[in-house]
Design goal:
By secondary structure, the chain is an alpha/beta fold. Among the domains are: 37 residues, lambda repressor-like DNA-binding domains (434 Repressor (Amino-terminal Domain)); 136 residues, 3-Layer(aba) Sandwich (Rossmann fold). The chain is built from 12 helices and 11 strands. Strand 6, helix 9 and strand 7 form a beta-alpha-beta unit.
């Protein structure tokens, strides 16, 4: 026996939007008789009925929120989600995860939905609010269609975005301090005597890369150092790309140190250097902009920046609950990144410290 179809599959078969199927189910007069007949025929043939959650009255409290993110396998997003889920449970709320597979590592999944389709699903499920992190909201240029869909979702429910603010959105934001950590990392490398410092990983057109790279260039200039194009290698945010980017760097003149966009890219770089017969930190020092759980256990341990991602998740949840309850939280300052010293810059065992 075939499994029960979802509202998305009903919409796909009827060649309409999810919101149109929802309107037919709810008896909305905003659907034309012809479209209603087509959709109703698909509903009847598939013996489709909406979930109990979706059938709830509009005035009912579902005590559910949604989290929309691009790749749950990325430690940054998984750390945020787990903290949001923990905080939601404390408030008596359940969390629905929408993993859009929008990230680079997942783009070979041919059947992934457009992100705005998940907005329609969130509306169908009658969630009380949504937290969005990553994906299109992190792009330097956000499409007009996406922004229109985002604002429509916001008109229906509270929406909190973990990311940098952008114009044209009516959503609430919890911002990340993307520059302070770059300053701490480069100052640390400068204090160790490094003058040839590269930049590794990240994806052009994405705010987290653009903002950190701008900070990298500005801080190098403040230190009296040059930003050399031969020391800059973009890729994305995953281990294989860090490996490939470092292999590319090894074809040219070597910097004495590199700033990696995150610990996964740093891990790939460490492997590439090892395969080339080079050692960290003797041949090249390494600092990462974003600490993940495994940096404590790599060889060598990675000097990295604790961005306090769990606190970001708590701030986002507090802001969303305030909006749901009609008592919005005041905008809190983003958490301060902290430099965590490891052997990848020359710190010996027993001398590691936190700043």
């Amino acid at each position: 026996m075939k499994g029960k179809k979802t509202i998305y599959q009903i919409a796909e078969e009827a060649q309409v939007s999810i919101s149109t199927v929802s309107r037919v189910l709810n008896g909305s007069p905003l659907v034309s008789p012809r479209t209603r007949a087509i959709v109703q025929d698909v509903i009847d043939r598939n013996h489709f009925s909406p979930s109990a959650l979706a059938r709830g009255l509009s005035t009912s409290k579902t005590h559910s929120i949604g989290v929309i993110l691009p790749d749950i396998t990325n430690p940054y997003f998984s750390a945020l989600f787990l903290e949001i889920e923990r905080c939601a449970a404390e408030q008596g709320y359940s969390v629905v995860l929408y993993n859009t597979m929008y990230g680079s590592y997942s783009r070979d999944f041919k059947k992934s939905l457009g992100e705005s389709a998940y907005f329609e699903i969130a509306l169908e499920e009658r969630l009380e609010g949504v937290i969005i992190t990553g994906g299109q909201i992190d792009m330097d240029e956000i499409s007009a269609d996406y922004l229109k869909a985002l604002n429509r979702l916001r008109r229906e429910m509270p929406v909190v975005i973990i990311g940098q603010e952008f114009e044209g959105s009516s959503c609430d934001f919890v911002v990340r301090d993307l520059e302070r950590g770059v300053f701490l990392a480069l100052r640390h490398l400068g204090d160790l005597g490094h003058r040839r410092i590269g930049f590794l990983g990240g994806e052009p057109g994405v705010r987290v890369t653009s903002d950190r790279f701008k900070a990298y260039k500005r801080i190098l200039a403040d230190m009296g150092l040059a930003c050399r194009p031969t020391y800059v290698h973009f890729s994305d945010y995953y281990v294989p790309s860090g490996y490939a980017a470092m292999r590319e760097q090894l074809r040219g003149p070597l910097p004495s140190a590199v700033l990696a966009i995150n610990d996964m890219v740093a891990l790939g770089a460490v492997r590439a250097l090892g395969d080339a017969g080079l050692s960290i930190p003797e041949d090249m020092a390494l600092v990462s902009c974003d600490q993940f759980f495994f940096s404590e256990y790599t060889v060598p341990r990675i000097t990295t920046l604790d961005q306090q991602n769990s606190r970001l998740g708590r701030l986002a949840m507090a802001k969303l609950m305030g909006l749901i309850r009609g008592a919005p939280e005041e905008t809190a300052a983003p958490p301060e990144p902290r430099l965590v010293l490891g052997e990848s810059c020359g710190v010996k065992l027993g001398t590691r410290s936190f700043e």
